[in-house]
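Appendix B, record 7
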Amino acid sequence: MSDQANDSWHLSKSVPITLIFGLLVQAGAIVWTVSMMMSDIEANMRDIMVLEITVSELEDVVQTQQVSLARIDENIKAIRDAVEYMMDRQREDHTQQ
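Structure tokens (predicted):
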């Protein structure tokens, strides 16, 4: 048991400094990559919120246009009915003469 107590973890001098440097560079690259990903995610969230607002506004405009189009259709129908009525009256007048 005394051998196990003396064999605690330690870094051997045979480990090259380039390996330690490489591990540190790799850890830094991972931290940088994760921070860039988080930044991109936040930017995408902002863009999505802007697009949701834009879509909502467009939906309101489309609904208003649908109402206007329905009114125009009703007006055209009323005009068509009036023109047909006038033509029928005119035909009746010509047939009576």
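Remarks on this record: Residues 15-96 form one domain. The chain has a mean pLDDT of 90.
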